[in-house]
Every structure is written in C-alpha cells, then in structure tokens.
C-alpha cells in the first residue's frame, strides 16, 4: 500500500513539474521536438493480439521511458539496453561506449488502444531527434543512437515504410538517421534507472532535457496523452 501511495505521490509531483515548465520551452522547435503533429503511417497493419512489444532507442532512456509511460494504451515501459551482449548490459559499459548496446526502452502496449504506427508518431515527433547521429542533447556516443529494434517482421516493414514516407514528405530539415534492426535481445537496466524522471523531477538534467518532452507530448498529441503515467513499480511483479 505504501508503495502505491509513493508512486501516486511521485506521479503527481511530475505532473506539477510539467505544468510549471516556462512557456518559452514549448515554443522551441527542433527536428526532434516539432511541436506539431506529423502524418500517421500510411501502412500501419492492425494487430488483433492482446499485447505487443517493441524496443525503441533514442538517447537517454530516462526521458524515453517517461514519455511512453504517459501514452494511452501503453501497459509497461522498461529502461534497458539492446544491441549488444548480456555481458556488457550494464550502465558502466554502455555509458562509456564499451559495448554495442544502445540505451533503449521496451514498450508493452495494447494494439487495440494504440497502434505501433502511432507509437512511431510519438517517437519521431517529440520523444527524440531522429536526425542526430549517435547523440541526443548533451549525450554523445553510439549508445545514444536512434534505433528501432523491431520485434516482428510487421514492425520492421512498418518502420521502414514510415521512414521512407517521412523522408519523401521532407518533414524534417535533415535526413533521418534512425536505424532499423530485428530485436535480438533486451536487458533491463539497473533499478536506479527505472522511473528515473518520476523519482527525480527536479534534477537539472530532467528539467532541461526531459520534462519539455512531456510538455510537448501533452501539447502535440492530446489524444494519446495520459495524465497518470503507468509506472514500472505498479506493473512489476
């Protein structure tokens, strides 16, 4: 019970911090924070399964986890590592570029509530900058690359077609550098990195680089926005 109350308190604190973001932040426009919707994928096959999972990488996993925890239809988001081996799936090796891993998030969602294509709309528009090669914000190195780790052939095809669609429409001022790979493995990050934004809403890094992403999600995609995030502490068994 105390754990649930703590989670609710932290969620409320995060929402308050989002509301307190200065107005000028919402007017900043970059390739990864357009502050406007982008077209839906022309190809976004329906999935009749009860649940679906995808792994997305796009910079520090703190912000990625926080963004997708606020998306309706998402049932769990785990911060972790993908692209490398189990032996190097730890923060020290990944952060110091001693592995092939990218910091990533494993997103489990109900495809009847939110489609894979709709998650990609959020991913490309407000969650990160897909035109930056091996960097996001102040973070540098291949572990912060933009990459979609597709869990199924359908996801792989949808992601490829969507990038081609966005490029043809010249949505971004520079070329999309997002890689697309078949998912081979995902490894959970250490406990201190899970739900990091909710636990540390007042850290300077979070306030500067990640809370604006939540504000952009709420502004650009109100139809996807969920006020209370689905925290890992609530879904982990």
Q: Can you characterise this structure?
A:
The two termini are 15 Å apart. The chain has a single domain (2-235), classed as Peptide Methionine Sulfoxide Reductase, Chain A. The longest helix has 18 residues, at 2-19. It has 237 residues and is an alpha+beta fold. The protein has eight helices and eight strands, in the order αβαβαβαβββαββααα. The protein has a six-stranded mixed beta sheet with strand order 7-6-1-3-2-8, with helices on one face. Strands 4-5 form a two-stranded antiparallel sheet. It is globular, with a radius of gyration of 16 Å. Helix 1 (2-19) packs across helix 7 and helix 2 runs parallel beside helix 7.
| Total beta strands | 8
What is the CA–CA distance across the termini? 15 Å
Tally of alpha and pi helices? 8
Major sheet details: 6 strands, mixed
**CATH architecture label name:** 2-Layer Sandwich
Helical content band: 25-40%
CATH superfamily: Peptide methionine sulphoxide reductase MsrA
Helix and strand string, N-terminal first?
HEHEHEHEEEHEEHHH
Biggest sheet: strands side by side, in what order?
A: 7-6-1-3-2-8
Could you tell me the CATH topology label: Peptide Methionine Sulfoxide Reductase, Chain A
Q: What is the overall silhouette?
A: globular
Structural class: alpha+beta
The tally of structural domains comes to: 1
Main CATH class: Alpha Beta
Strand content: 15-25%
- The mean pLDDT is 88
